[in-house]
Amino acid sequence: MHKSQYKPIIEALVACAAECEHCATACLQEEDVKMMVRCIQLDRDCSAICRTTADALARDSDNAKVFLEACATICSTCGEECEKHAAHMDHCRACAEACRRCEEACRSLASLIY
Length: 114
Fold this sequence. Notes:
Number of domains: 1
Oligomer: single chain
Order of helices and strands: HHHH
Keywords: Plasmid
Structural class: mainly alpha
Helix content: over 70%
CATH topology: Substrate Binding Domain Of Dnak, Chain:A, Domain 2
Radius of gyration: 14 Å
Strand content: under 5%
Organism: Adhaeribacter swui
Protein name: Four-helix bundle copper-binding protein
CATH architecture: Up-down Bundle
Distance between the termini: 10 Å
Largest sheet: none
Pfam families: Csp
Number of helices: 4
Shape: elongated
């Protein structure tokens, strides 16, 4: 694939990273931060892999598929954790949605790369 075809997924990756950072920051403001530790850790992991994957795609890395698969897995895990809090925390709901979109985009693109 030509790297210009990666633009939509790079945008999704950057958006997911930003949403995860927002969620982690908001979780730190919650009254019971100890209850949110796993969510915060996964938010940070997801943000990091999304940014790294976006960078890999931007430079047309030979390892793009590996990055995409790892990113999809971490987005899935983060999304599942945020879903647990989505009913009473808007930032977790928004993060879970962003993670699901990003996971789907990563899996879709990874399936096209040999």
